[in-house]
Amino acid sequence: MKKLMFCLVFVFWASMIFAGTIQIKGSTTVLPIAQKIAESFMKEYPNIAISISGGGSGNGIKALIDGTTDIANSSRFLKQKEVKMAVEKGVYPVPFAIAYDCIVPVVHPENPVSNLTLDQLKDIYIGKIKNWKELGWIDKRIVVVSRDTSSGTYEVWEEKVLKKARVYPGAQLQASNGAVVQTVAKNKYAIGYIGIGYLSSQVKQVKINGVLGTPETALDGSYPVSRPLFMFTQGWPKGEVAKFIKYVTNPYKGQKLVKEVGFIPLY
Predict the structure, then answer these.
(1) Which of 138, 146, 158, 227 lies at a C-alpha separation of 20 to 30 Å from 243?
(2) Alpha-carbon distance 86 to 77, whole Å?
(3) Dihedral of CA 95/101/103/106: which sign?
(4) 40 and 128 part of one domain
(5) What mean pLDDT comes out for the span 227-237?
(6) What is the mean pLDDT of the chain?
(7) CA 223 to chain centroid
């Protein structure tokens, strides 16, 4: 009996030792997608453990180049300097589009402003428009909430809204989409921007140029601030990583969960 117990314990221990593991780091926008799909994936493949953390697209890509993660979540494509750094280290990141997203401006639910132009948004974020009175509301200073510079969401906002101008120094910088939601929800005079999957009743979405950010307007190109979301791997994926990427892009598995989380599936 003791011998049988020992064999059973050894088999369990050995299976734990040889179980596959996948490390995923990066974008907080992609984070809920990765978490939802990983949960489903691990139910189907219980011998593969997945560890996921945020930190921003830039940090995820850096971790991939440094060899400290298997997959980098990113809400933007690689920068030229990141490509150069990767090649110098013998790393060749391979991109996989895994979903689409709208970056939507949000305000407090009690704020009556429902539409802003791209020019107005730019002027708010560079500090040219400072008071809600200038936008037809109350005589109160606008509390500008932005993302930190390691964020892929910030970089897309900087490119498409700010046109490479700098956010004014008085803006409150937040490390994640969730933090932006919480900040705006607690301040009646705040404005921020988030990935569409983070929309909730805590904040109110604002149209841009009269167009509401939706899956339809993102895919047909009528919404001005939309983008693909990515997972990058070190070279062409193999083994457990390849199995996970295939699961993420499967129309009936990962892509179904992308929609459940509130983002826009590929198909």
Answers:
(1) 227
(2) 14
(3) negative
(4) no
(5) 97
(6) 93
(7) 18
In the chain, the percentage of residues whose pLDDT exceeds 90 is 91
Give 177 or 17, the one with higher predicted confidence.
Answer: 177
**Structural tokens at position 83:** 């490509």
Task: Please tell me the number of Cα atoms within 13 Å of 82 on its side-chain side.
Answer: 20
Is 1 part of any domain? no
CA distance 86 to 60: 13
Q: Are 113 and 193 in a shared domain?
A: yes
Q: Does 11 reside within a domain?
A: no
> Residue 12 domain-assigned?
no
Residue 195 forms beta bridges with which residues? 103
Number of domains, the chain: 2
Containing H/E element for 262? Answer: none
Amino acid at 144: V
* Residue appearing with tokens 């909730």: 200
Is 215 a domain residue?
A: yes
CA distance 147 to 161: 13
Q: Is 70 exceeded by the pLDDT of residue 3?
A: no
Q: In this structure, are residues 102 and 209 in contact, taking their beta carbons and an 8 Å threshold?
A: no
Residues 190, 253, single domain; the answer is no
Tell me which residue range forms the domain holding 71: 21-99+228-261
